[in-house]
Amino acid sequence: MSIKRLLFSITFFSATLLLTACGSNEETATGKNDLKEHELASEQVMHLTVESELATTDSVLVAENITFAGINQFIEGLYRLDENNEPVPALAESEDLSADGLTYTFHLREDAEWSNGDPVTAHDFVFSWRRSVDPTSGAAYAYLFENIKNAADIMTKQLPIEDLGVKAIDDYTLEVTLETPIAYFSSLMSFVSFFPQNEAFVTKTGDLYGTSSETTLSNGPFVLTEWDSGLDENWTYEKNPAYWDAEKVYLTKITNQVIKEVATGVNLFEKGTVDNALLSGEYAKQFQKDPGYTVEYFSRTNYLEVNQTNNPYLKNETLRKALALAINREELTAIILNNGSLPITGLVPDHFVKNPETGTEFAQEAGEFYTYDLPKAQKLVKDAKTELGVDTIELELLGDDDETSKRVMEYLQGELQNNLDGIEIKLLNVPFSARLAKAAAGDFDLISSGWSGYVSDPMIMLDVLYSTSAYNNGGYANKKVDQLIDDAKGVHANDALLRWNDMIKAHHIAIEDAALIPLYQKGEAMLRNPKIKDITINSVGARYSYKNAYIVD
């Protein structure tokens, strides 16, 4: 690969990081503000509501958005994302890139400490990343490391973890060697899965690591306090006095409270007890003129996972397509959700990443697949029943137990049962952690689920379609899709256009196969206290950073 092409590739993917219009900070009452224009409130304490519990604080094991956002407050990696989703230095003061694009050398700051007083060093990254590729660790996002030298062979037990292409040249110089260039690698370094871990502390705490605030070590703007794993619905972040950039951290404390009912959150917000509240349905309509109203967009597609491994009915492609065509996504987003979410008929969200040659959004170039078509859906379900030799098909729809999830699932139940003769849908709402466990075990028929982009690249979404992906819970497998994904990651990794075409083709085949059933691109209507300024809100990655946030009178 030429230097010219490498630089183009890096520049392209950097320039196309998602900038959602309605999700920009200027429109969320958290835009950049000159502190000289305001008087800081005497109490810099923020009270947050969140949708679900923290699952773990072990950055190797974490697998869901609420915990990603949480860890991002009290642990820090090489980079963090700014308000435009661009990587900015955190623990890495600078980086060098080899001419072939395969070797990154990160120069770490020497004033960063863990909350126990230990220095943060390059060895902490080596230890953490080796844990992630260790096939015995159960790392949730191990596949993100596959392009680091020898990672794939380590994960299949063909090489020892010591052969991973990451090396501490000295305490503050980290060298990473890749198999093939990754245009978005610097952005990837802001993601929680690549955060460091203190080997001595992890070893000492053993299986208890990351299960409580006492067994969690922080190196970020805040430290975690008052938290135990499991069903603990309250926890706190307190300002970290040892943080290298502590003088730019204004909040002294952030409390977190799990609120699953919209009405409860709104009530607490109106009383001034909390500083944010999710809105949906009638509440979103009611508060649209409130000074604290905002819509925050995610690079996240919500969809139904379809169990094609254990459910004999759902192995039938005709039935899967019938289900997909029987859902009115416009009605779902405009009436049932009414929170800024957008209808989507494919996997890759809109306003996410553009064709390197034409500038066309991936979602637009990919085309529409499952627009509402009831006559066709009814014909297909009749054909499917004939193919399967049955008159009635009973399916269970699994989902979370928060209010929004329940409302969406009830709507889908009605759509599918009322529109398709012989289809019966039973609902099962469970806590978030239970839903994840059932998904991983293949214990479901249909799951209301979704996937988020941690950087703006189509492959981040397409990975869930790969036959051996840890998050391909439905067991979808197509050799052609696997090959196209492999080509995009390998033989075409250095050619932005060929790589793009591979991904377009893989997406088309998988969605045509009804590998999953797309529903909507997630948006959140939200009430936020207008007195809170400079929350960094990202549409990708861990979503929120409160490092520079502050409260005015």
Short précis:
The chain has about 550 residues and is α+β, with helices and mostly antiparallel strands.
Structure description:
This protein has 553 residues and is α+β, with helices and mostly antiparallel strands. It has helices at 3-15, 65-74, 122-133, 151-155, 185-188, 199-205, 262-271, 281-286, 317-325, 329-337, 362-366, 374-388, 403-419, 432-441, 458-462, 479-489, 496-512; strands spanning 45-50, 79-81, 87-89, 92-97, 103-108, 166-170, 173-177, 222-225, 234-239, 253-258, 276-279, 293-306, 342-343, 393-400, 423-430, 446-452, 516-528, 532-533, 536-537, 544-545, 550-551. The protein folds into 2 domains: 3-258 and 529-551, D-Maltodextrin-Binding Protein, domain 2 (3-Layer(aba) Sandwich); 300-523, Dipeptide-binding Protein, Domain 3 (Dipeptide-binding Protein, domain 3). The strands form 6 sheets. Strands 11, 12, 13, 14, 15, 16 and 17 form a 7-stranded mixed beta sheet that branches. It has a 4-stranded mixed beta sheet with strand order 1-10-9-8, covered by helices on one side. Strands 4-5-7-6 form a 4-stranded antiparallel beta sheet, with helices on one face. Strand 2 and strand 3 form a beta hairpin. The radius of gyration is 23 Å and the shape is globular. It starts with a helix and ends with a strand.
